[in-house]
Amino acid sequence: MAYTWEPKWELFTVEIDGIRFRTCRDRITGLIACPVCIHAASRCMNEPSPLNYQYENSFFYTVEDLIIHMKNYHIGEYRKKLEDLQMKLSEEES
Q1: Assuming Cys at both sites, which of 5, 37, 72, 78 could form a disulfide with 56, CB separation 3.0 to 4.6 Å?
Q2: In sequence order, what DSSP letters do the residues of 42-69 get, joined into one string?
Q3: 42, exposed or middle or buried, with CB in 10 Å at 0-12, 13-18, 19+?
């Protein structure tokens, strides 16, 4: 019995509702990785890893589950940053 998992990543393109992005999918299990959490560009697209990137392990069985995760976890994070930036810009204009 194995207690570790060594994913065999392959490039996987998600296209849903006119939005298209690339991420990684394990060839053996079919698990789809969140492209933001694992920094898919460095994991399966041969791009260099960022120096200070905080990796998280978020894997999903379906594209729908991945989309729900991205909407709930990542979009909210960016929305807050945009609201803060908008507030800062409006204060500078005043």
Answers
A1: 37
A2: HHHS-PPPPTT------EESSHHHHHHH
A3: middle
